[in-house]
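Sorry, any thoughts here?
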Amino acid sequence: MFDDFITDAISVIDYFKSKNVYNKIYIIGHGQGSLVGIVAANNRSIDGFISLAGAGKSIDNVILDQIELTAAIYSEDAKRVFNKLKQGKITSNYPEGLASIFSEDLQPFMSNWMQYNPKDEINLLQIPTLIINGTKDLQVSVEEATLLSDASQNSSIKIIDKMNHILVPIEGDDLVNSKSYNESYRKLSPEVVEFILAFIE
């Protein structure tokens, strides 16, 4: 379940806090981990939170946006399945093309995950928050980062030109962008490192 990720993150925070050897503790969450980190950081007495390419909408709305852009033929089917999940139900009635999202063994996880709205969760944080996103992110748009920033009580936002979802600079088109996910030689965007260090320091 999605809640297990949050439980694990809280356990890690509590472990390092119990050691009493660190001056400050920051949480950094990337992608899905952004939401995990937001929820885990709440009321844990840590010093700051950093979201890297984190969504500002609940996962069902994020996926619906992605399907609309890449495979609009499945939009109505996806809406129907998400409505079932919102009711706490499991369904076997979904297109084969959406099996990677809606296979019956994944549906309980998705149902749990979509209960969290990142905007609501980040609004609860009372700590300094840094939100970073890239203009070449194929999965999480700049608008998502803006949603998080607008909902946060104490945040700064950094948008990095030409950085994609895996935090590397992309000069080419969407094909080059997609291929980069399997190109381990690529280096992180220098700006992302600079912004994180400046925020913590």
